[in-house]
Amino acid sequence: xxxxxxxxxxxxxECGFNSVGKEDFYSMLLQSGASVKHISETWVSNHYKWIVWxxxxxxxxxxxxxxxxxxxxxxxxxxxEREVNHGHRPAIKKILxxxxxPSSVLVLCISSIQTNTEAMFENISTSHGVDRSTVxxxxxxxxxxxxxxxxxxxxxKMLAFGKLFVGQKLKISGA
Length: 175
Hints:
Blueprint: H1 3-8, H2 22-31, H3 41-61, H4 69-85, H5 91-96, E1 106-115, H6 118-121, E2 136-141, E3 146-150, H7 153-160, E4 169-172
Antiparallel strand pairs: 1-2, 1-4, 2-3
Helix pairs in contact: 2-3, 3-4
């Protein structure tokens, strides 16, 4: 399971009929009291992806069953409560909204790695001394939201030696 597959994950329905996917969780969240003006299908889809990925990872590590409809729903309700009702925001959201400087120290998880893609070359300045043939574009997540980033030369070398991988956490500072 990876975040892209997690976003498309569907739970089998009872007796094999009517599987339950991210669209259904949006409806279930609204039925449980969430406000239409505070969340959107995009909000649910984003959180659904990270919740399913997390619970699938738990199942790989522990013998219990974590990836269930009820667990996903509880996690969505928890995130709604924290983010909408209490106004708590995760690290990436604070940075993207300009309330915290990007140079802040934070721990992010590598959720995907793409090496040598044309799109990332457009974002790289040769004045920074980065060899364009050795860089990689990564998606980093705080577990709630994600951001794309380009690895610097030392991290690109670590990736080349197999020391960076999806699921690994990085302590970021001075981004």
